Amino acid sequence: FDPRHYLGTHCYSFPKTGPHRLRFLLESVKDLRETLKKKGSTLVVRKGKPEDVVCELLTQLGSVTAVVFHEEVREIL
Fold it and tell me: Residue 10 — pLDDT band, cuts 50, 70, 90?
């Protein structure tokens, strides 16, 4: 979870993620973790800036051959 997603937006300081969306995200992550557990896998959940958290995970895991991600599209006003 990137803490920047819970701050106000650049325009008018509206929250990017309100309480209802946060609840939905938490429930979705919980459900995904339970589904993966039933299949013999797991889900790693971290809080922090992705650029920091991913580097820490790669260091901890050691033998990673690939990392895949997507970048949020930002609207230009």
Answer: low
CATH number of the domain enclosing 38: 3.40.50.620
Distance CA 71, CA 50 (A): 11
- 16 three-class SS: coil
Q: pLDDT, tens digit, for every residue of 23-36? A: 999 999 999 999 99
Three-class SS state of 27: helix
Phi, psi of 66, rounded to the nearest 5 degrees: -155, 150
Tell me which amino acid residue 11 is.
C
